[in-house]
Design goal:
A hairpin with a 6-residue loop joins strand 12 and strand 13. The model has no long low-confidence stretch (mean pLDDT 90). 26% of the residues lie in helices and 31% in strands. Helix 2 crosses helix 3 and helix 3 packs across helix 8. The relative contact order is 0.15. Strands 3, 4, 5, 6, 11, 12, 13, 14 and 15 form a nine-stranded mixed sheet that branches. Strands 1, 2, 7, 8, 9, 10, 16 and 17 form an eight-stranded mixed sheet that branches. A four-stranded antiparallel sheet has the order 21-22-23-24, with no helix packed on it.
């Protein structure tokens, strides 16, 4: 069993060199996931004669986009009714339209550019195990009916009988990394400069734009678009106050009779699945989702999802985890970050639906940076107004974040560490020690450089994980996932 995503198996992309000089650009895109590469691709199609640069801290497509289920659907749990409850019916209808446009965009790109990314027509199902949730489904159905969406009521999610399920049949699944890498090649052919293994370290506001420093170079750009999953800066934007992070656990294994269906529960804890056809037939199963600061016994979390998945799988081939940025008001943040700053743009907070929202981000951001109007720009406006739902969720999330931060420092040692992990002090400095199977000591400073949250050791993946904002570090302290920009080596 491999502890990594199914989507990176057998993928050997052409690796691009890092940036090692000072350059200038009209438009800089930070982040090479689906949102970033879609934005670059949409700009390339517009033939603007502007210099466009994209930088990625790892390899394009191998970040958070490679940890998803690869669903292209507008039936996203009961999200439409949540949006309607906060912003009204027009916002829910427009969000539905945006997700449908994202799906159509992928279809068209696959057809026009002959992209081999295992795109397959699928039915999407939202279901529940709890009869008390049925009234909530009816609100979602009203929105679907109002928008002339054909749907069916079911008593099965495809794998088992359930009390209630809603199904639509005009959605898709695909291989996200293959799709991203195809767009990457198309961008390169159009003259877009892409630098891999190039991490943005600072964001400096200038009179006519921004300068972004990297480890060995810098980019001075008129417009900067941040498409990292979680922004590497705290100000502007104040993301820690506008969102929380949800962690999910995913497994994949051989399944002899794949179905053309994907499904998800209407509420947490999430159960989700889809099928994938490649050299073998796979079932991808998702479970044990939780707010990042909860359930810190990661071995137990992995054991739980593996136990549940084995109800359907004889063997598990792959297991991995995913982080999703969840906004306080159920809508992503896509567009100009601040009202008084026309140079800085962002795409984040996709609320577990990063595939469709990553694609639509490309449409929106490519228009906005060129001064063009976009029908969705007000809907996803990052500095949009505050609503009652936002205030309520903000208070809940703030209390949770404060509690997580405090406990990460007060509770230095957990019972599930056993004898493999030790928390101690060395010359007055807090130390975290992991003792590997050979008896070797791996010592780090177990404090996240991002916002100084105490780290927890993940005995399943052998990493130090931040329970506040999701940064991850190797047992020897190398940062492998942001928003932290720095290592924790001693």
């Amino acid at each position: 069993m491999k502890k990594e995503s199914i989507w990176i198996q057998g993928i050997r992309p052409k690796v691009l060199p890092p940036l090692k000089k000072r350059i200038k650009a009209d438009i800089l895109i930070v982040g090479g996931g689906l949102a970033g590469i879609s934005t670059a691709f949409e700009l390339a199609k517009k033939e603007t004669n502007k210099k466009i640069v994209l930088i990625e801290r790892d390899k394009v497509g191998f970040g958070s986009s490679s940890n998803t289920t690869g669903k292209l659907t507008y039936l996203q749990e009961l999200n439409l009714s949540k949006i309607e409850g906060t912003f009204g019916s027009s916002a829910a209808d427009l969000y539905l339209q945006s997700q449908k446009e994202a799906i159509a965009t992928v279809q068209k790109n696959v057809l026009d550019y002959h992209i081999n990314c295992n795109l397959e027509s699928n039915s999407s199902i939202t279901f529940t195990y709890d009869k008390n949730e049925i009234p909530s489904f009816q609100k979602e159905e009203e929105i679907l009916s109002r928008n002339h969406v054909n749907y069916e009521i079911k008593n099965s999610n495809g794998l088992e009988k359930v009390p209630y399920a809603v199904e639509v049949n005009d959605t898709f699944v695909f291989h996200p990394v293959k799709y991203i890498l195809a767009l990457k090649e198309l961008c390169l052919k159009q003259g877009i400069e892409i630098y891999e293994h190039t991490e943005a370290l600072t964001l400096k506001k200038e009179e006519d734009g921004y300068t972004v420093d990297t480890l060995e170079g810098s980019i001075k750009a008129t417009k900067v678009i941040i498409c990292t999953q979680y922004p590497f800066f705290t100000i502007p934007g104040f993301m820690p106050l506008r969102s929380y992070i949800e962690r999910s656990y995913l497994v994949a294994g051989n399944y002899n009779k794949p179905l053309k269906v994907n499904a998800i529960t209407a509420s947490n804890p999430t159960t989700s699945f889809r099928f994938h056809k490649d050299k073998k037939n796979y079932l991808l199963y998702v479970g044990t989702s939780h707010k990042l600061g909860n359930n810190l016994n990661y071995v137990e979390n992995y054991d739980n999802v593996l136990h549940d998945a084995r109800n359907y799988l004889k063997e598990v081939d792959y297991v991995w985890q995913n982080h999703d940025i969840m906004t306080n008001d159920h809508l992503p943040l896509i567009g100009q970050l601040k009202k008084d700053d026309p140079h800085l743009f962002i795409a984040t907070g996709f609320n577990t639906w990063g595939m469709t929202n990553g694609v639509i981000s490309g449409k929106i951001l490519s228009d906005l940076v060129l001064g063009e109007e976009n029908i969705y720009q007000e809907l996803f406006l990052p500095y949009r107004g505050i609503h009652l739902e936002t205030i309520k969720n903000f208070m809940v999330d703030t209390i949770h974040s404060t509690k997580t931060y405090a406990l990460s420092h007060l509770k230095n040692y957990y019972s599930f560490y056993l004898d493999e992990v030790k928390i101690t002090s060395l010359d007055g400095k807090k130390c975290g020690i992991y003792i590997d199977s050979s008896g070797k000591y791996h010592t780090v400073h177990p404090i996240c450089p991002h916002l100084k949250c105490g780290l927890t050791f993940n005995l399943f993946t052998k990493t130090w994980d931040c329970p506040c904002h999701g940064s991850r570090f190797t047992m020897d302290g190398e940062c492998i996932q942001g928003p932290s920009l720095y290592n924790i080596n001693l």
